[in-house]
Amino acid sequence: KMAADTSVEILQKVLENEILQTTKVVEEHLDAELQKLDQMDEDELERLKQRRLEALKKAQQQKQEWLSKGHGEYREIPSERDFFQEVKESKNVVCHFYRDTTFRCQIMDKHLTVLAKKHIETKFLKLNAEKSPFLCERLRIKVIPTLALVKDGKTKDYIVGFTDLGNTDDFTTETLEWRLGCADIINYSGNLMDPPFQSQKKYGTSFTKLDKKTIRGKKYDSDSDDD
Asked: Does the keyword section mention Oxidoreductase (predicted)?
C-alpha cells in the first residue's frame, strides 16, 4: 500500500513538473512574439497590414468568382451536357443523381441545400438520373440517390445511398458534411477521425437500421441494386 501511494505521488510530481515546463515554454514563446512586435518599426507594421489587406482582398475576389460560377446555392441542371460544362469550370463539384419517385432523394436535397450555402468553395448540383442515361452508365450509377464527387473534372468518389451516413434516414447534415470532408471535396474544419454519427451512438440515440423489406418494397425500390 505504501509503495503504491509513493508511486502515485511520484507520478503526480512528474506530471506537475511537466505541466510547469510546458507552461514555461508557452510563456517564453509568447514573450518572444510580443518582443518581436515591440521591436517592429512603423514600416514593418505597415507591410504586415498591407499583406493582411491583400489576403482579405484575394479571399473576397475568390468568393466572387465562385458565386459567379453558381456556387453558394444548390441547383438543378437540365441535362448531361450541362454536367460536363459545370465540372469543367469548378475545382470541386458534388452532383446528386436523383429520381422524383425516390423518397430518399428529398432527404438528400434538404441537407445539400444547407451545405451549398455553407461551403461556397464547392459547387452543389442535382441531375435527374432518368434524363441522364449516358452519364449514369458511364459513372456506373445503379443506386439512387448517389452523389458523384468530382475534383478537377474527374469523379474521385461516390456516396451511394445512406450506407456511409450511419445507415439511417435520420442522418444529420453534419454527418454528410463529415463524409464530404473525408473525400476532400469541401474544406472541412472538424475532426475526420470522429464521425458525427459515432457520438450520437455514444449518447444512446436510438438508431434506426434500414429495414431490408422496405428497401425492396415499392416505396424505395430505386434504392435497391435490382433496377
From this structure: no
